[in-house]
Amino acid sequence: MPPPKDVVKIAIQMVGAIPQLIELQQTKPLASVLKDVCDAWSLPNAERYALQYADGRQTYITESNRRDIKNGSILRLTTSPDQEADRLYVGIQSKNVDVKTDSLKKLASLSQDVTFAQEFISRNGLKQIYSIVEEGNDTGEMLAHTLKAFTELMEHDFVSWENLSTVFIKKIVSYVNMNAVDASIQQLSLSILENMVPTSHLLFELVKKEVTLDRLLTHLQATNAELQLKAMALLIALLLSATDAERRDMMDYLREKNLRQFIHKNIIHSSEPLGDEMAHYLYVLQSVSLNLCEHRMKTSMDPYSQEQRDLLQSLRQTAFESESEVPAGSFSTERRRSLCAKEFRKLGFMNNSNPAEDLRRVPPGLLALDNMVYFSRNTPNTYSRFVLENSSREDKHECPFARSSIQLTLILCEILHIGEPCSETAQAFYPMFFGQDHFFEELFCICIQLVNKTWKEMRATQEDFDKVMQVVREQITRTLSLKPTSLELFKTRVNALNYSEILKLRQTERLHQEETLAVPVLELREKLKPELLELIRQQRLLHLCEGTLFRKISSRRRQDKLWYCRLSPNHKVLHYGDVEEGVQSPPIESLPEKIPVADMKMLLVGKECPHTKEKSSGKQNKDVLELAFSIVHDMEEYCLNFIAPNRYEFCLWTDGLNVLLGKEMTSERTQTDLDVLLSMELKLRLLDLENISIPDNPPPVPKPPSNLNFCYDFSHAEQ
User: Fold this and answer.
1) Is 643 within 8 Å of 653 (Cβ atoms)?
2) Edge-to-edge strands of the sheet including 600-605?
3) What is the rounded distance in angstroms from the CA atom of residue 173 to the CA atom of residue 294?
4) Higher pLDDT, 522 or 663
5) Alpha-carbon gap, residue 360 to 352, rounded angstroms
6) Which of 49, 111, 219, 493 could pair covalently with 152 via S-S, beta carbons 3.0-4.6 A apart?
7) What is residue 268's DSSP assignment?
8) Alpha helix positions (H), 274-416
9) Counted domains in the chain
10) pLDDT by residue (tens digit) across 658-692?
11) Closest CA to 293 of 470, 439, 491
């Protein structure tokens, strides 16, 4: 018979003693439990002891977390957090270097526990750490343990980063700026500064002033991958905390220092595989850089701005240079205005008498004008050929350069998500972005020529403008999905994907859709569905058995600790626990925490999850909500909270958990997988019917014959 809900069977260890096997009454005060345990081992002063997990992070057991103890857990009797905090508080002040170093090492380990951290901080322990950093000149093992302990203590958010003294901050900065210092100390110092920057503008200004971009670039060029990662993290934190003007200045300086080219050559194309965190930072750097275009994108043209009018006129003059060389006095004002209007019409402006009106549309606003001017100045021959070639065609077949440029700029802004906030978890960046300084403008130059090429292939007229731009959007998105590593490769691939290729792709997709809509095929689909859904269920459970690495996301940092979760092979228990960086697939025995599937009550997703409600203070990022899910267990009292690394993992895990709960799989991935499997199965079943049209309705059954005399009567057969 299973034990009651309020009783868990556990083992308790102590060094030099035989372990105790007890039934822990969860309703019994923890102090009484400790007294019973100490009495069994004849230990006085039970209040000086505490229980902690023997495996994993060795968290102290308290009244608030005791309900997390599962059947079969192994605990250890150890010194209580307050006693340990007192001992280490004295130890880190010792004059004996060995004692001090050992105490700091132990402190760095224990500070991960929130109960111990609270006890140590309440004794003004952080003040002692400040003193060790501010007054010490050591740059070895002792300092590394000190910085590690400080980082872990600050993780619990008991103390504000704004309370740090300028002396302490400058000391941390000095470790970043030193040349002859251990890499582990520089990594910890960079990590501390990264956490500090987003908390207040004053701290941002201080760090920005003390740690120069040149210094960060030096760390980025280090061969130590972890140091490189921490330097990139601080750089991204500074960029995200800066004002628009500061961010623009910083990006301009980084452009001068060829940061993009360095990243393209030494990070993206490094011999080492790119980690998830670095991929995220590169995505953010790309997003921040592209969002510098947002201001121009959202600013409409001012017809009274002389600078903007000059840019507009330069487009006309570059295209029709020989015609513009006629002296101004040769024409009347009216004739000159008529000539300009004619030239602006040839350029493809809708409102040729006042082309500024075309650029008042927001978005793309002035960004479209910037792109047109860049194209005309950097490739004047190509620009002139585009305009003159189209102005010599029949009116109805000319490709309007200006109108196309305005619409193309808008399409590129939408595809590249310009003006949208950075995702907290995304890792999707374009490698070719880092291989080019003026990426957006150069991409526009390639794509506007694509517009002209596609226009001719489609033999389009003005009425086909939207259709052409739709094809161009498809050409760009299909090519970008291939992740070309350079703009040259993008240009080659996008030009190879001509209109006829797009038509073939559409035709293939349309035929595939049509062949699956015939009534007999639909009936076959319905018959196959249950079998294929069962196959998807098995795949989901198999994925849960393999397990996934998750990251905890704290309020200050994008990513915190790593933990792993996997389902037992018999599908009865979920095992989970914290793991170290670099561990890919830990064995199930190394995951100390367990949740019986029978105790799972409900699956929550998105805004319903408790961990998203806690963090929804104004700036909760949309994509984190889309990746969050929680398992409610033990009579709806406790939740195991997840943030999936990507949408794919979110779909597989929520599906798998719904299968364990006996519910339908609801993710979009289920439908996608089902469609793929149905398509494959149908093609195999219908292989013999290739090129034979399937009727919508079955053929009529013929009437029975008037007699059955044609049947052979076996009763008269010869014996």
Assistant:
1) no
2) 600-605, 628-633, 638-643
3) 33
4) 663
5) 14
6) 111
7) I
8) 276-290, 294-297, 306-319, 321-324, 333-347, 366-378, 380-391, 401-415
9) 4
10) 999 999 998 999 999 998 898 888 877 777 655 56
11) 439
Contacts of 469 (CB under 8 A, 6+ apart): 404, 407, 408, 411, 451
Please determine, for residue 640, whether its predicted confidence score (pLDDT) is greater than 70: yes
> What does the pLDDT look like over 148-168, one tens digit per residue?
999 999 988 889 998 888 899
Q: What are phi and psi of 294, to 5 degrees?
A: -60, -40
Per-residue pLDDT of 80-95, as tens digits, reads 999 999 999 999 999 9
pLDDT at 708 over 80: no
Q: Are 366 and 302 within one domain?
A: yes
Confidence of residue 545 (pLDDT cuts 50, 70, 90): very high
Tens digits of per-residue pLDDT, 268-309? 888 788 888 899 999 999 999 999 999 999 999 998 899 999
Please check whether residues 93 and 74 belong to one and the same domain. no
Q: d(Cα 558, Cα 613) in Å, to the nearest integer? A: 17
pLDDT over 70 percentage in the chain: 90
399, burial (CB in 10 Å: exposed 0-12, middle 13-18, buried 19+): buried
Structure tokens at 494: 């996008």
Q: Are residues 58 and 112 in the same domain?
A: no
Q: What is the CATH number of the domain that holds 564?
A: 2.30.29.30
Quick: pLDDT tens for 123-137.
999 999 999 998 877
* 628-633 vs 600-605, strand pairing mode: antiparallel
Residues 106 and 64 in one domain: no
Looking at the fold, whether 62 and 156 belong to one and the same domain comes out as: no
Q: Which long-range contacts (CB under 8 A, 24 or more apart) does 106-112 make?
A: 107/145, 107/149, 108/145, 108/146, 108/148, 108/149, 108/152, 110/84, 111/149, 111/152, 111/153, 112/57, 112/152, 112/155
Contact yes or no for 154/196 (Cβ under 8 A)? no
Q: 637 φ, ψ to 5°?
A: -95, -30
Domain boundary among 52, 79, 106: 79
Q: What is the CATH number of the domain that holds 93?
A: 1.25.10.10
Do 302 and 162 belong to one domain?
Answer: no
| Domain of 604, in residue numbers | 530-671
- Does the pLDDT of residue 108 top 70, yes or no? yes
364 prior amide bond cis, ω within 30: yes
Q: Measure the CA–CA gap between 398 and 128, rounded to whole angstroms.
A: 77
Measured distance CA(231)–CA(241) in Å, rounded: 16
Average pLDDT over the chain reads 86
Is residue 631 situated within a structural domain?
yes
Return the CATH number at 32: 3.10.20.90
Domain for residue 255, yes or no? Answer: yes
Q: What is the C-alpha to C-alpha distance for residues 164 and 149, in angstroms, rounded to an integer?
A: 15
Question: Is residue 521 in some structural domain?
Answer: no
User: Is residue 284 assigned to a domain?
Assistant: no
| Region 168-193 average pLDDT | 91
pLDDT band at 591 (very low <50, low <70, confident <90, very high): confident
Q: What is the dihedral of CA 577, 578, 584, 585, to 10 degrees?
A: -20
Q: How far apart are CA 438 and CA 379, in angstroms?
A: 14
Q: How many degrees, rounded to 5, is the angle at CA 263 between CA 434 and CA 248?
A: 65
261 with 316, same domain: the answer is no
SS3 248: helix
Please compute Rg for the chain using Cα positions: 34
What is the tens place of the pLDDT at every residue in 463-488? 999 999 999 999 999 999 999 989 99
Query: Count of CB atoms within 10 A of residue 469's CB?
Result: 19
**CB distance 203 to 215 below 8 Å:** no
